[in-house]
Amino acid sequence: MNKNYTCFKKSQWYFENPEVPFDISDIMIGFKIKKKLYSGKSQFQKIEFFDVYYYGRVLALDGIVQTSEKDEFIYHEMLCQVPMFLHKNPKRVLIVGGGDGGSLEEILKHKIEKVWMVEIDKKVIELSQKYLPSISKGAFSDKRAEVVVEDGKEFIKRHEDFFDVIVLDLSDPGGPAKDLISLNFYKRVKKALRKNGMVSIQSGSFTCQPELVRTIFKRVRKIFPSAEIRRAVVPSYQAGEYSFTVGSKANLKKITVKDIERKYKKLKLNLGYYSPEIHFISKILPKYLKEKM
Ligand code: SAM
After folding, report:
1. Which of 175, 178, 93 minimizes the C-alpha distance to 139?
2. Is 62 a catalytic residue?
3. Which of 30, 42, 50, 55 is the most exposed place for a label (fewest CB within 10 A)?
4. Which residue is closest in CA terms to ligand 1's atom 5?
């Protein structure tokens, strides 16, 4: 018997809340803690920041890991760079959620006019700037960025035919994000988009939340003339295959590898995961996943 197995100290480990919305896996992930930094409650949720040995600094909301220094670039690049490369010339961008600033940082890599980040929980923004500046990398002080503290559901109702790209960087659909996977909300998102506008959604884990992924993709396909789903492994998200759904007013099938390669070469952005190859390969789903969609 491996002695380490019997005598690990639970107090040295952070175990994620197993009650993740739509999660059917009954997998509970533990992270060996290096240092606890902050634990407190806001009006909306429990907020925790801590250092772990493998993933570095981590933000958890209601006990669910939202982002880690080690692999946040995979998640944020897939969520933000795919729509920003698909859209010919995005100028006005809206991020709903994204309080850690990782999506904001990705969007600001592009020559946009303005980006609005609408986050319901002011505390997540303030504490992320204090404990996780390595993720936002100064994006909050960029003059092209406007941070709005509001429920995204209300903010979107006041906009029509206005944005080129909308990024839904929301927590799992329990708590404050509960209603932001509804058909109604996606209809309002479509209304808020300009001609050829598109939405990009973190649509859950293929591995642990297949019903959530299927529901979101089905609703987006119902509302938008064009929709695509991609996958990428974000190791700190229960090590499963994560999904990223795009809904578009433009016909995505008309956008070629050449279009993406040309833009990629021209922009020369500093990216660690996204590339023209990843853009297309990540859309190829194995048979068992295709059948579920
Ligand atoms: N990467 C994470 C994930 O995949 O679960 C998401 C990270 S980001 C921190 C999620 C943010 O969405 C949180 O800061 C949360 O406060 C925010 N949020 C949840 N519901 C919201 C709503 N109705 N309007 C605006 N922001 C919301």
Report:
1. 93
2. no
3. 30
4. 171
